[in-house]
Each structure stands twice: as C-alpha cells, then as structure tokens.
Design goal:
By secondary structure, chain A is mostly helical. Chain A is built from 13 helices and no strands. Chain B is built from 16 helices and 19 strands. Classes of the chains: A mainly alpha, B alpha+beta.
C-alpha cells in the first residue's frame, strides 16, 4: 500500500523519533479500510466493556411472557425463545468471545512463532520441532479435548469457579491445538529470509543469533504472522462455540457469540434477527481485525515500507 | 472450522438477501440440499406407490437383536414381525399369532408359569417357505446363546424353555410365576427371525453374518432390496405377505442423516419426504413449519416421562473415584439432597406448565407421576405438584433450618444449597434447564448448569465421567419409559440392588441410588400377584413411593412426535411399539 505525501512526511518524522505506536497510527490512518476497521473494533470493545454496565438487563433470566419478540424499544435486539433479551446476551457474549479469541490467539501465536522461527533458523532444531508439529497436527482434536476436559475440568472448577475454570481450559485447549499452521508458515518464511543478503551481512559483522532473529527475521515475517493472528481470533471464537455446543464449553445458560448463533439457527424463520446479531458481531470483529492486521503489516513489513 | 467460518459469512449474506426478498430464499436453498439426497430414489420410483421415510439417526443394522437403538429396531420392523404388537392404546394385537393367549382361552396355565401361542397357519417367509413354530424356538435359542450379547436378553431371563408343541403351536415355560407372561416375542423389540437363514449365525458368529444382519428374511409387509449401513434402506413390497393387496406402497425408502429440525423441514416445509420421526424440536418451530401446509404433526403418547433424577449420594468432585456417587450401604449420603424437605422444595418450586409451553407444546403434559399410562395405573395422589408453590417451598426450607445467606443462597451448618444440574445437549432440554434454574433461584437455591453430548451422556462408557449412570452431579434430567404396557420391569429398576457402581461397570437402573426395604418387598410382591386389581394398586403405591420420596421429580409426560405429509393416510402413531407397526396400512 503506497503512502500518500502527507503521510510520507509524518512517517518521516516518525522515523526520526521511531515510536512503534506512531508507526501503527500512521499506517492505520493511511489505510482507509483499517481506519474503518479500527473504528468498528473500538466500538465493539467499548460496547462489550461498558455496555453491560449501562444496559442492566440480566442476559440469563428467561421470561415466558416475552418469548420470540422482534426488536422493539424495550428489547432493541428482540428476545429469544425463552424470553431472554438478545441485546444483553450479545453484549455479555461479546466479552467472553473477545477475551477467549484474543487470549487463545496470543497463546497460539507465541507458541507457533517460537516453534517456527527456532525450527527455521537453527537447523539442528528443525527436525525435532517439525515432527512435533506433525504430531500435534495428527492428534484427533475431539478425543483430545474429551481427555483434557475429563482430567482437568473438576480441578479447575474447584480452583477458579465454573466460569473462570472453563475459560482457562478453553483458552489453553484452543491455543494448544491451533499453533501448528502458524509454525509451519513461519518456518518457511524464516528459511527464505535467513538466506537473504542483509542477514548474511548481519552475520558477517558478528551479530548474535538472537539479535538477528528479533531484529531482522521477525519484522520480515510479520505479514504471515499477522494474517495468522487475525484468522486465529476468528478461529478461536468459532472453536469456543463448537465446544459449547458439544457441552464441553461454558455452562449452557452462559451466552457466547458462537452459542447464540448455534441456538438461533433453528429459529431463523421465526426471529431472523436472532442469528443476525451474533453473526454480524462475529463477522464485524473478524473483518475489522483483518483490516487492522493488513495495515499493521504494511507498516511493519520492511519490504512494503521501503517501496 | 473453516467451513463454519464460511457459514457465518453466508448466514449474514443470506440474511441480507432474505431481508430484500423475504424468507423463502433461505428455505429454497435448504430444499435443494435435501433434494439432492433423495433424487436417486425419486427418479426411479413412482411417487404414488413409493413411501419416503426420513430417520435422522442412521440405522446401522437390520438385526434388532444386535442393537438396542430405536432407529435399528424400527427399520427392521418393516421386515420382521413378532407374535403380537402393541397398538396405539397399548393393547396387544395378534400379528403372527391367531389370538392373544389368556387364561380364558387356555393359553396361560393356572399358576402363570407357561404361555401357549397358536401361530397363524397361512404365514410364509418372503422367500416362500412356511413360517413354523421351529422359527420361534430358534429365535429364543439365538438370543439366549451364552456367547452372544443379545440386546433383549432380559426378556428371556425367566424363560426356562420354548418348545414347539406342533408346527403351529409354541409353549413358553417360565422358571417362576409370571403374571404378565407377554415379554418374549411381543413388540418390535423381540421379533421372529428365520431359522433357515440364521442357523449358522449362533453365538460369536452373530456379528460376522453381515449378509443376514443386513438383509434378514421376514414375514412383514416389506423386504430389503438394498441396505447401506448408516445411509439408506431400500425396501420392496413382500409379494408373499399374508394380507391380500397389502402393503399399499410397492416400494419404500428409509433415508438417514441430518438432525431433527432439518427432518421436520423436509416433511412439513418442502414435502420431499412422507414421514419423519423423533422430532424433539421447540413447538413454535414445528408450528411455523406446518404453516407451509404440506404436512401435519403427529403425537403418540406412551410411557415417556421427562424427569429430574435426584442424586441421594454424595457426588462431590473432591471425593475419590471409589466413593463419588456411590451408596456404600448408606454411609455416603448427599450433604443436602438426602433431606426430604429439600427435595420436596425443589419439586414445589417448578412450574411444569412453563416447561411444557416452551419445550413441548401439544407434545407434552405436566405430570407428577413416573407411571403415567396405561390409564388404569395412573395414581391421583400427587396432583398438587402441577401448581407451582414458591411460598410453600420457601416455608419448607425455612422450617428445615435452611436460611438465606448474604448472597441470598440458603445455607445450614456451612452447607450451601448449590446444585450442579446436568442433562444431554438438546435445545429443548437447555431451555428447560434455564427456566428451572430461575425457579430454584427464587427459593434461594443456586444452580450450575451443564450439558453433555447425548452420545456420551447416554453412552454408558464406564471410563467416561459424564454418563448418566455415573451421575457425577447433584441432579440430572432425561426421559425414561418402559416397553409394552406392563411396568413391572420398570418398577423393579428402583430396587436397592440395581444401583450402578464400579463392580457392575457402572450399569444399573437405580440412578437416584435410592434404597428402601419396603419398596423392594412390594416390588417382589408385584412379580408374584396375578390379580389385575391388586396389581394396579401395587403399581400405584410403588409410583407414589418413588415420587413422594422425591427420588425422581417427574416433569413432563412426553409424546413421541413425528411428522407426516398430508397425502399420507393410515398412520397411527404408536407410543408403545415401533412407529412403523402398521406400515402395511399406509397409503395415499
């Protein structure tokens, strides 16, 4: 993405005082999609953090007298088939979806990038680490989940309560089962980048391996990592909903976006808005993160920045 | 995962489209997906003489003795027949027998230790060979072979011998007095198989006889043309069927796959199937689908009762596997559910009509009994539970010393009324859970909900902590019923000896882990008494003991719910036997 003149100047000044946040801000400002994405994302974050404080309807309390309502003033998003308010459910579901999505994404990204870079850069680690990746890829997800849940659910439930316990469990499970793709991509990119002249030059002046990784390799492979990250959030939100659906996730009366979507699907002909809201929320979150990721890549990827 | 992500986007796009062009846009797409599955049969078969049935759970075999699954038993019931079936009012009607034996017609001896069935002389198997008493004797030998895990072996536990008196007379002798000797060979669970076809499939070889198990020769209205396990069964009419001109349909298909909602849609909205089975879907969804005018919903009330089972033993996760949810001669009682007042308060707080309205509609009725049908067994002693009584429940708890703590949850001696409530994953059940949680909240009882995938929950895997047998929770909810019209076997399930425990691989029918000597003695008496009036009184008393001790809290008397297309006639939805029990009478 080419930067316009005004931004070029701003970037120039940013280069003089190279603050990473400045780079990000400039990049987002110069990228229309990212600007909109950032706005939407900020709105969603704001809505799910302070929304439930302002809109105090309890999302878990059913009321048989207000079932299957279309949106109205009293219930702006309508109600579900048990008479629970949809707005309250979407707001509180968003908290958990975004928390799970981010935490699991960060976990899988850290593990995936670490494994990928180490395997790509240090030849002697390549074999063992990639076989480990294959091993994880070959693990059947569902039986693994059943075993993990069986072993740790009651322990975690006793230690942190039913909701936090399950939160840790789900984040861990999603993170630990979704880092492999990132690792493979990062390894491939690392292999390509480490043969480039500037790495050779850095090596020739005696730069340490760690410094080369952080200074030269990581910034150059940031674009696939960013893409993985944004997809990872979406993936985590969806995986959480699948787990809830199988009864391995949060308690059934605990709204999450994925569960709202699943539950609403059968009612699509009666109250179509029921799937619209969580569907829209998931789509908007994923899309806006994608756009931000896109802009971020433009800003940090040296190949694009130098064009 | 990626597919699902795609679905999310498609759903949003679809909705935008729907907003522009009304909702049919969505149902049309669905219709196409279903249509693809059915085209191969529809192009070949003439629609007027072809019957299209949709069973969303997949039949995996056509030998009912190998599987306890309803889907398999019903798919086989179009081919194999028992000596007698139950009709929609739980009355026995002779199928392969001439009449129902009784003491009046001399079919049952004076001390109820043997029953003699007269077989119809005009019945032939679909391969043309005659059906004789030898086939009945063989079926008994087949199922009771010691190396074979027959799914209905419990029907034969008291059977001493089955003998062919002459080619068309069979006598069954029991080891003890059996006032209700109609267990063996009555109902679709225990049909007759052909001796000639299965004679090499005894014992361990039963599983290997794929050809026989996938294509049994029967006396029923249809025979198998093609069977693809977990996919589709093609049937053609049995030309040798004993009733002239029947079945009215010349060919039939049972197609499998999908879920309850899509099955209902395929009959009610798009009309590409004639009949769909087991539609536990929210009533408003079904109502909405019937507006399309293509089909109707059928209800068949039998003995199904949705209930909450109360764990009378301690299920605390801090207990080791050798103590958790085990009776241990009464030394391991539940910290608060062992108190009658608490169990009663939980029942009083529930408004059963709300559960029916939101989850079952016309397919359910509030109930306070575990034996609800046949009508003569219905006890009138428990009707007051049908009205919710929050104040009464609160008073009960107050009187028992359970007082609200700082957070509103009642406690006594440091024990909080906090309940873990589990059930299988099913949107109707999760809806009911949400309501019950709220109702219990009103009386100061805290509830944590848990849902478990049905295949795990009902699976009976002794290694899984999440089965309903293990019951590692305080209360759980599911439906239970009994086969046929006699509840004796069902009521025997609450005997002390029937509790699941590790020594029995966690199998057993006394799920609440209740133990009462009085109950055990009365059940024993029931198996001895032959007088009908007295039996009815005992059944009522036993029912009252179960529900007045609140071992189980009955909620909803459920019907079987199926859907039939408008042009399909002759369907009598039966809550007591296979839904396809009278398929020979179905017509357009």
């Amino acid at each position: 993405m080419a930067l316009n003149v005004r931004n070029e100047q701003a970037l120039h000044s940013a280069r003089i005082h190279p603050s990473p946040w400045m780079i990000v801000w400039v990049a987002i400002r110069s990228h229309k999609g990212a600007l909109v994405g950032a706005g939407v994302f900020a709105f969603i974050i704001l809505a799910v953090t302070i929304g439930p404080i302002l809109y105090t309807v309890d999302p878990q309390v059913p009321d048989v007298s207000i079932r299957n309502l279309s949106p109205s003033l009293a219930h702006p998003f309508g109600t579900d088939n048990l008479g629970r308010d949809m707005l309250a459910q979407v707001l509180s579901g968003g908290r958990i979806a975004i928390a799970v999505g981010f935490t699991a994404m960060v976990l899988s990204l850290v593990v995936g990038t670490a494994v990928g870079v180490l395997a790509g850069y240090f030849k002697w680690l390549d074999g063992p680490l990639m076989r480990l990746t294959d091993l994880f890829l070959a693990l059947p997800l569902l039986p693994l989940l059943l075993v993990i849940i069986m072993l740790f659910r009651d322990t975690l439930r006793a230690a942190f309560g039913p909701e936090m316990g399950i939160f840790f469990l789900i984040v861990f499970v999603i993170g630990i089962t979704s880092w492999m793709q990132t690792a493979r991509i990062v390894r491939g990119e690392t292999l390509a980048v480490k043969e480039r002249e500037f790495v050779l030059a850095a090596t020739s002046v005696g730069t340490s391996g760690m410094r080369i990784v952080f200074r030269h390799i990581l910034p150059n492979i940031l674009s696939p990592v960013m893409v993985s990250a944004t997809l990872g959030i979406a993936n985590a939100i969806i995986t959480e909903s699948t787990l809830s659906f199988l009864g391995l996730g949060f308690p059934p009366d605990f709204p999450t976006w994925g569960r709202l979507l699943f539950d609403g699907a059968n009612f699509i002909s009666i109250t179509p808005v029921r799937v619209l809201w969580p569907g829209l929320a998931i789509s908007l979150t994923v899309l806006s993160i994608n756009y931000i990721g896109d802009a971020l890549r433009d800003a940090v990827d040296p190949r694009v920045r130098n064009e | 995962m990626k597919n699902f992500l795609g679905c999310v986007f498609l759903a949003v796009i679809g909705l935008v489209l729907a907003a522009c062009s009304q909702s049919p846009a969505i149902s049309e797409t669905d219709a196409q997906t279903h249509g693809n599955g059915a085209t191969d049969t529809e192009t070949v078969e003439d629609l007027d003489t072809h019957l299209n049935i949709l069973y969303w759970q997949e039949p995996s075999t056509l030998n009912p003795f190998l599987s306890g699954g309803t889907k398999d038993i019903e798919a086989a019931s179009m081919i194999l027949e028992p000596l007698a079936n139950y009709d929609e009012n739980a009355k026995m009607v002779p199928t392969l027998a001439v009449e129902i034996p009784s003491q009046e017609n001399g079919g049952i001896n004076d001390d109820y230790t043997s029953i003699t069935w007269k077989l119809r002389p005009d019945v032939v198997w679909s391969d043309g060979t005659p059906f004789t008493a030898d086939d009945v004797v063989f079926t008994w030998q087949y199922c009771t072979h010691e190396e074979f895990g027959c799914s209905v072996s419990n029907y034969f536990t008291d059977v001493e011998s089955v003998t062919a008196v002459d080619p068309h007379t069979v006598r069954i002798v029991f080891t003890r007095t059996t006032p209700h000797p109609y267990g063996p060979f009555v109902g679709s669970l225990v049909p007759i198989i052909q001796k000639e076809q299965f004679k090499d499939c005894l014992g361990l070889r039963a599983q290997e006889c794929t050809e026989q198990n996938f294509g049994p020769i029967g006396t029923g209205p249809f025979k198998v043309k093609e069977f693809r396990a977990n996919d589709v069964v093609h049937y053609v009419a049995n030309e040798s069927y004993r009733e002239e001109g029947k079945p009215f349909f010349r060919t039939a298909t049972i197609k499998a796959g999908g879920d309850a909602t899509s099955a209902a849609r395929a009959v009610l909205e798009t009309g590409e199937f004639d009949y769909a089975w087991n539609l536990q879907v929210e009533p408003e969804i079904l109502d909405n689908m019937t507006k399309a005018g293509k089909g109707r919903i059928l209800f068949g009330f039998g003995s199904l009762v949705e209930r909450i089972i109360v764990n009378l033993t301690n299920a605390d996760s801090s207990l080791g596997p050798d103590r958790r949810s085990q009776y241990l001669d009464g030394t391991n009682p539940h910290p608060f559910l062992s108190e009658l007042a608490v169990r009663k308060a939980l029942s009083l707080a529930i408004d059963r009509s709300v559960l029916v309205e939101t989850g079952y509609g016309d397919g359910g009725r509030p109930t306070c009994n575990v034996v609800v049908l046949p009508e003569e067994y219905y006890s009138d002693a428990n009707e007051e539970c049908k009205t919710q009584d929050i104040e009464g429940a609160k008073k009960l708890l107050d009187d028992a010393g359970w007082v609200p703590g700082r957070d509103g949850i009642r406690e006594k001696d440091g024990i909080r009324l906090s309940i873990l409530y589990q059930t299988s994953t099913n949107s109707v059940r999760q809806g009911n859970q949400a309501f019950i949680k709220q109702m219990w909240d009103q009386i100061g009882v805290e509830t944590e909900l848990r849902n478990i995938d049905g295949s795990v929950f009902f699976g009976g895997d002794a290694a899984s902590p999440d089965t309903y047998y293990k019951f590692f929770a305080d209360v759980q909810m599911y439906t239970s019923n009994f086969d046929g019209e006699d509840p004796t076997q069902y009521l025997r399930g609450w005997r002390c000896s029937e509790m699941p425990n590790p020594d029995k691989s966690w199998v057993g029918s006394n799920i609440p882990r209740a133990c009462s000597e009085e109950y055990d003695n009365l059940v024993e008496k029931l198996s001895m008494v032959a007088d009908r009036e007295e039996r009815i009184e005992i059944v009522k008393t036993l029912n009252d003991m179960v529900v007045q001790n609140y071992w189980e809290i009955p909620l909803v008397h459920r019907a079987r719910v199926s859907a039939a297309t408008n042009s399909l006639m002759g369907v009598e939805l039966n809550g007591w036997d296979s839904e396809l029990w009278n398929v020979e009478n179905w017509h357009r």
